[in-house]
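Kindly inspect this one:
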Amino acid sequence: MCTLKPDVLLTRTEYGMALLDQKRAEYWTLNPTAALVLQTLLDGHGTERAVESLVERYEGVDAETAAQDVTRIVDDLSSAGLIAP
């Protein structure tokens, strides 16, 4: 579960999502995998549900790989100052 930082705007794109940090005038694009993880967390679910969502959506992705992906995505978004726990 997380929220976007107050100065961050989100929009869905054909390919995933785009995030704009208005304070720093920087933007990031998220691929479909990262977009699914972020949307799951913004919807009030935890990382466990995000892992389940990846396993359900992408055939052949096991829970361990999905958990590593979720951890990396959350760490990257947090480090960039885009989300708050």
